[in-house]
Design a protein that fits this description.
- The protein is mainly alpha-helical and 186 residues long.
- It contains 6 helices and 4 strands; from the N terminus they run βαβαααββαα.
- The strands form 2 sheets. Strands 1-2 form a two-stranded parallel ribbon. A two-stranded antiparallel ribbon has the order 3-4.
Length: 186
């Protein structure tokens, strides 16, 4: 009995993501699904609070790849773009990333094809996330406030368009911790 015997040819799989910005979790699941030869149209990626795909088999376990499954190929450029694109607020971003990763297995040079709609879309997601991150780092300013006991605190308000807070939270802290006129996360 092999590990792939529980892969059903017409099954649809749902991957429940633990957080909206969890690239490492997505990468691990995507790698296993690629190794099990599960095409993109058979996988639904669901964020916390999201609903399952209409065709997904809600309780079905994800298949496990064989020990001798071929390694998953991904270019450095793909990984760089994918890490940022995973932070975008587009609900279809993980499906897009998986579809592109699937394509990379057959065509390792697909990232060089500027006419490919998936490549263009992931580049656009990356650009939007980088712009949002820049706005957070460049324009957020903390103000000093005192609490009821006279203690000092710094507060700021920033509402990003994308899931960038966890990824960018440590940027200014070491350099600007003692300067209230500079951004410094709490």
């Amino acid at each position: 009995m092999t590990a792939l015997q529980h892969v059903r040819p017409h099954a649809h799989y749902t991957v429940q993501l633990p957080r909206s910005d969890d690239f490492a979790f997505w990468r691990e699941r995507a790698r296993a699904l690629i190794q099990c030869d599960i095409p993109p149209d058979k996988v639904a990626w669901v964020e916390p609070g999201g609903t399952d795909d209409l065709f997904s088999s809600g309780g079905m376990r994800l298949p496990a790849p064989l020990e001798d499954a071929p390694p998953v190929r991904a270019s450095k450029r793909y990984l760089s773009l994918a890490k940022n694109a995973a932070l975008h607020s587009d609900p279809n971003r993980f499906a897009l990333l998986y579809r592109l990763l699937w394509g990379l297995q057959a065509n390792p040079r697909i990232m060089e094809d500027k006419a490919d709609p998936d490549v263009r879309r992931v580049e656009e997601l990356d650009k939007n996330v980088r712009r949002d991150s820049h706005k957070m780092h460049a324009f957020v300013r903390f103000r000093q406030v005192e609490d009821a006991e006279g203690g000092e605190h710094y507060v700021a308000w920033f509402e990003p368009e994308h899931h960038i807070l966890r990824a960018g939270r440590s940027y200014p802290a070491p350099r600007h911790a003692a300067r209230p006129d500079r951004p410094c996360p709490p």
